[in-house]
């Protein structure tokens, strides 16, 4: 049983959207390389930053991806995997991946089902930007949804939150409080 399950953080219904303190529901999508990628592939190994892009009509939808690419080594240093999820055809996603020269996986949600189930869609079911930040166990530490009128965080704010997660999780990084052995050094 995971930490969030112990805390009662399991989703109750399939219609629930991820919220802080709950586990994010696992899903599998194909990457632009044609390989299936599941959130559970990273469970116990990496924090996650899930970026659900909107329909692409707003330049900022993809601007966040290029900003994260600039700081991607920082995310890797913080034991964090970035996954971008686009609702489009595989060819379009591959073109975006190549044009933006992204190092992190781009996942394709062709029918938009994952966008809708993750709360990354507007009331009409069209894709809308959303960002979820989880610890290595899949517990949501932050959720931002444009469809709810929320502003997407800056890359610097995401990095700060990831660092905070790592401090709070001794098995993920440095402990929050000094240990006896670290004080005797």
Give a topology summary.
Elements (H helix, E strand, L loop, with lengths): L2 H4 L21 E4 L4 E3 L8 E6 L7 H11 L1 H6 L2 E7 L3 H11 L5 E3 L4 H5 L12 E5 L5 E6 L9 H14 L11 H4 L2
Question: Can I get a quick summary?
Answer:
This protein has 185 residues and is of the alpha/beta class. It has helices spanning 3-6, 60-70, 72-77, 90-100, 113-117, 155-168, 180-183, and strands at 28-31, 36-38, 47-52, 80-86, 106-108, 130-134, 140-145.
DSSP strand content: 15-25%
Low-confidence stretches: 1-15, 173-178, 181-185
Reading the helices and strands in chain order gives: HEEEHHEHEHEEHH
CATH homologous superfamily grouping: Glutaredoxin
CATH architectural designation: 3-Layer(aba) Sandwich
Walkthrough of the structure:
The chain has 185 residues and is of the alpha/beta class. The chain has one domain: 3-Layer(aba) Sandwich (Glutaredoxin). The protein contains seven helices and seven strands, in the order H-E-E-E-H-H-E-H-E-H-E-E-H-H. It has helices at 3-6, 60-70, 72-77, 90-100, 113-117, 155-168, 180-183, and strands spanning 28-31, 36-38, 47-52, 80-86, 106-108, 130-134, 140-145. Strands 2-1-5-4-3-6-7 form a seven-stranded mixed β-sheet. A hairpin with a 4-residue loop joins strand 1 and strand 2. It is globular and about 40 Å long. It starts with a helix and ends with a helix. The relative contact order is 0.19. Mean pLDDT is 82; it is low at 1-15, 173-178 and 181-185.
């Amino acid at each position: 049983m995971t930490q969030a399950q112990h805390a009662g953080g399991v989703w109750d219904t399939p219609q629930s959207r991820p919220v802080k303190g709950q586990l994010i529901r696992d899903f599998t999508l194909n990457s632009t390389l044609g390989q299936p990628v599941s959130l559970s592939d990273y469970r116990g190994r990496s924090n996650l930053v899930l970026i659900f892009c909107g329909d692409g009509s707003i330049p900022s939808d993809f601007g966040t991806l290029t900003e994260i690419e600039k700081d991607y080594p920082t995310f890797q240093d913080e034991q964090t995997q970035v996954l971008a999820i686009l609702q489009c055809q595989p060819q379009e996603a591959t073109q975006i991946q190549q044009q933006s020269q992204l190092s992190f996986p781009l996942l394709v949600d062709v029918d938009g089902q994952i966008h809708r189930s993750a709360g990354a869609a507007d009331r009409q079911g069209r894709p809308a930007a959303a960002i979820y930040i989880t610890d290595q166990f899949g517990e949501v530490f932050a959720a931002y949804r444009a469809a709810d009128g929320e502003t997407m965080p800056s890359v610097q704010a995401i990095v700060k939150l990831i660092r905070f997660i790592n401090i709070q999780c001794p098995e993920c990084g440095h402990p929050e409080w000094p240990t006896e052995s670290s004080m005797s050094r």
